[in-house]
Fold this protein.
Amino acid sequence: MATSPILRTEPRPLPRPRMRAKQTSLTLFPTAARHGNREQPSGASAPPLEPVQRTRPASELVGIARLAASSPLAEAKRGTEYFLLPVRSILNRCNSERVPFRWTINPYRGCEFGCKYCYARYTHEYMEIDGGEFESKIYVKQDAGALAERDLGCEEARGQHIALGTATDPYQPAEKEFGATRAILERMAEREGLSVSITTKSDRVVRDIDLLRRIAERSSLTVNVSITTLRTRLARLLEPRAPRPDLRLDAVKKLREAGIAAGVFAMPVLPGLTDGEEDLDALARGAREAGAQWFGASVLFLMPASLKQFIPFLEEKFPRLVKQYKAWYGRGGYAPETYASEISRRVNLLRQKYALNSLPRLSKTQEIASPQLALNWGS
C-alpha cells in the first residue's frame, strides 16, 4: 500500500438527476418566510485569484502565520489556490471543555466547499488571512502520512478518541489532488485499538471503503455524514461546492452496505432555512432509508468571523431573515436556549419515529465529533 502523503486517484463521474422538494412546513424562526427550491442556485466557481491579503507584513508574522506566508503555491484551479503547509504534527490537542473529544486531525486548513455558515473561518485568521478567503486559499499539510505514523504512537494520545474532520472537510476537492486524508488512513489501518470518527459532507468518503474496512477490523471507527437539507437548490446556496444531499445519503448507504458504522448529522440546523418540521422529517426519513444508525443535530453557531460573511449572504439571498439573525447572533454565537430546546425536542421525536440512535454507541474512551465541534450539542 502506498504511503506517500500525496496520492492521486482517477475521477469517477457521477450522475446528476434533477430533484425537486416540496416545502410547506412552518418554521420556529419568528419572522422567516419559507424558502423552498425557488431560489436560483449560486455559481460554483470561486472569485478570481488575488494575492493573499494579510493584516500585517510577512516580516512581522510568527508561528502558523509565518509558516503559511512561506508556504509554496502547489496548484491553482477552479479559482482556488493550494499551498503546501509544513507542520510539526498532524495530531492536534483540543483543550476546550465545550467539545467532547481531545484529539483532532484536519489534513487541510481552509475548505473549498465554502459553506456560508462555516464556524471554522476564524482559523484562517490565525494565519493573518481574512476568513472570507477560507474557501479560496487551501493549505495542504505536508507529509501527512509520515506525521500520522509518528503521532498515532504518542503515549499521551493512546486510548483517546481521534476526530478526523472537525474544522475542515477531509474529503473536500483538494483530497482528490493531494490525498492527505488517505495517507493518514493508511497509517491508521496499520494500527489496532484506535478510536476514530470521520465527519464529512462528501460522498468521496466511499473511495476509501477498503481502508475503512481495514481500520474497523482492528479499531473502533464511525463515519458521520453531515447533511443540512435535502432541498438541492438551498443546499447549493448554503454549501456552494459540497456534493448534493442525495449523493451524501447514497454514501451513507454504501458505507452501511460495506459494514461501516455510519450515521447522519443534521448540523447545523439553520433558523428559518432548514428548521421546518417537514425539512427535518424528510432528512431523518432519508437517513433511515439509507441505513443510518444515528441521527444527530445541533443549532447554528456563528463566531464573529463567520457572522461577518453570513450576514451579507442573508442580505443578498434571504433579506427577511437578516433582522432576526442580527438580534439572535449579534451579541453572541448562539441562538436562544428556548429555540435550541425546541429543535432538540423535534429531533428526539424524529429519532423515536424512525428508530434512530442519538449518537454512535461508544466505549468509555471513545467520544464523538460534531461538524460544529459540538458547540451546541444536545439533540
